[in-house]
Amino acid sequence: QVQLVESGGGLVQAGGSLRLSCAASGRTFNPWRMAWFRQAPGKERQFVAAISWSGGSTYYANSVKDRCTISRDNASNTVSLQMNNLKPEDTAIYYCAAAVTPRVSITTYDYWGQGTQVTVSS
Fold first, then answer.
1. How confident is the model at residue 27 (pLDDT cuts 50, 70, 90)?
2. What are the two backbone dihedrals, phi and then psi, of residue 12, each rounded to the nearest 5 degrees?
3. Distance between CA atoms of 48 and 114, rounded to whole angstroms?
4. DSSP secondary structure string, 46-75?
5. Are 98 and 110 in contact (CB under 8 A)?
6. 78 within 8 A of 7, measured Cβ to Cβ
7. What are phi and psi of 65, to 5 degrees?
8. Alpha carbon distance 19, 108 (integer Å)
């Protein structure tokens, strides 16, 4: 079973930065695509960013575009999300996701991590 473990969350003031990391455990694999989602209390899970494994193509939600950068290390099956100029509305649990087979939608994934809390204070 593929397991995804997120790290790097925490408390940060508005305008600050955080770098989230996600590592696959249990086995070495080459996913089709990996992504970050976030979910605030009472709200639906929201797509944040995704990156393809083949060519490293990236995709961003408009809400984080220009403030976040997703990257990956194919050899170690890890994905990171650098978040800058954080805002209180970025407060959420951030989840890592992996698609192990080709998917048409960039918002559809096969595996999910447990999440890491990001809290942005004003």
1. low
2. -145, 150
3. 16
4. EEEEEEETTT--EEE-TTTTTTEEEEEETT
5. yes
6. no
7. -60, 140
8. 23
Distance CA 26, CA 35 (A): 19
Q: pLDDT for 68-102, tens place per residue? A: 999 998 888 899 999 999 999 999 999 999 998 88
Two tokens at 23? 């590592």
Strands 10-13 and 116-121: parallel
Could you give the count of Cα atoms lying within 13 Å of 40 in the half-sphere of its Cβ?
A: 8
Fill in the amino acid letter for 44. E
Percentage with pLDDT > 70 across the chain: 97
Token output for 74: 């194919």
Structure tokens at 12: 């940060």
